[in-house]
Amino acid sequence: MRRSYELGGLAEEDLAPDWLTQLRAWLADAGTAGLTEPNAMIFATADADGRPSARTVLLKGLDEDGLVLFTNHDSRKGREAAANPAVSLVFPWIDLQRQVVVTGDAERVPDAVADAYFARRPRGSQLGALASRQSSIIRSRDDLTDALDALRRTYPEGTPVPRPAAWGGIRVRPRTVEFWQGRADRLHDRLRYHRIGGGPTAPWGVERLAP
Questions:
Q1: Contact yes or no for 87/172 (Cβ under 8 A)
Q2: Helix, strand, or coil here: 184?
Q3: Closest-CA residue to 71 (of 57, 86, 85)
Q4: 82, 119, 180, 196 - which has most CB atoms within 10 Å?
Q5: Which pLDDT tens digit goes with each residue over 150-187?
């Protein structure tokens, strides 16, 4: 179960001047290539005692301030990101022999941003967010379907669905953004944008890592 990665390389002169431009370019490549859910990313958190967990989420916002996902803040990932904001994201674009690894700090997005995004969600997703107490233990799937049916009666078609108080967005403000391109003989290219000095307003530099 071993493949030789030979689609291309990644040199310093190929990089965009900043991590955001580079990530947008690679996201566009993933979309053009027809990858399933090109904005899917693994979101890794750890609790206050350092015990890790990871799951796949979808990127829903991207700008110079960071990467945004939406979730229930009472879920495991929401609780862990609040207790220990040091988190990581991974885009695993296997078919392109690429991945992007982000490390940074998690913070809640403002309620106004969460309201605006929730209002754009499909109605079924809105009702589902109300029906599910994410990460809680339930007796059976019937608990979910019964709750959803009740909500459909409470909020008939054409009635606005309110955003659950615990549902919102998490922004990951990057400290490092690594672009990984597979190469032959496992001598992969790894170029990482990083904050020089580590402070939130420090300038960015680029460094090459051994594979």
A1: yes
A2: helix
A3: 57
A4: 180
A5: 989 999 998 999 999 999 999 999 999 999 999 999 99
Closest CA to 173 of 78, 106, 116, 124: 106
The residues with which 180 forms a beta bridge, in sequence order, are 99, 190
* Other Cβ atoms closer than 10 A to 146: 12
Backbone angles phi, psi at 183, to 5 degrees: -135, 165
d(Cα 150, Cα 50) in Å, to the nearest integer? 39
Q: Could you report the per-residue pLDDT of 61-115, keeping only the tens digit for each?
A: 999 999 999 999 999 999 999 999 999 999 999 999 999 999 999 999 999 999 9
Phi-psi category of 37—alpha, beta or left, where left has phi over 0 and alpha has psi -120 to 50? Answer: left
DSSP-derived secondary structure for 73-118? TTSHHHHHHHH--EEEEEEEEGGGTEEEEEEEEEEEPPHHHHHHHH
Of 14, 179, 13, the C-alpha closest to 96 is 179
CA distance 123 to 132: 14
What Rg value do the Cα atoms of the chain yield, rounded? Answer: 20
* The pair of three-digit structure tokens given for residue 199, joined into one six-digit string: 């402070």
Q: Is 158 left (phi over 0), alpha (psi -120 to 50) or beta?
A: left
Using CA atoms, how far apart are residues 92 and 102, in angstroms rounded to an integer?
Answer: 12
Look up 186 and say whether it is catalytic. yes
Whole-number Å distance between alpha carbons of 102 and 87: 8
